[in-house]
Amino acid sequence: LEALLIVDEPPEGELLHIDWSMAAANGAGTAADPVWTSRPDSISLTDWTRLQNDLYPILLTISYCDCGIDGMEVSYMGNSRLQGGSIPSSEGINVADGFVPKEGMWVTGGILLLLAAGGIEWYRMRQTQELSEKMFR
After folding, report:
1. Which of 8, 1, 13 is nearest to 91 (CA)?
2. What is the pLDDT of residue 72?
3. 46 and 34 within one domain
4. Which of 73, 106, 93 minimizes the C-alpha distance to 18?
């Protein structure tokens, strides 16, 4: 998800290759429950921190009441600071080429193989039919 936030154009395919080397970023969470974070090394720590500050909500609270009602309350205060300048440019996000290299060549080879097998089978059936006609005359 974070990779899709910093592309210049929408992806052309459904699968993406994200080729990043990751670097450590500022940790998050409390001292008792720290959260390990990372960032692409092609984005500076300053730009990554600005993106996170502009993107993440100001407040997100999920409360569960075990008081016979089993109610859950979600409080959300969005952040309206995200703008075009908040998103750093990055490299290493490419649309997937396919499962194998030179996919078109493999498809063409497969079709030719099917045509050859069909031709051989047609020739075999014709020979069998001619032989049976000779035998039962």
Report:
1. 8
2. 83
3. yes
4. 93
Contact 21, 7 (CB under 8 A): no
The tokens of 3 are what? 């990779």
Length of the chain: 137
Residue 111 Cα to chain centre, angstroms: 29
Rounded CA separation 123/72 (Å): 72
Q: Which domain holds residue 17?
A: 3-96
14 and 69 in a single domain? The answer is yes
User: Structural domain tally of the chain?
Assistant: 2
Q: What is the mean pLDDT of residues 4-33?
A: 73
Distance CA 22, CA 26 (A): 13
| More confident call, 14 vs 2 | 14
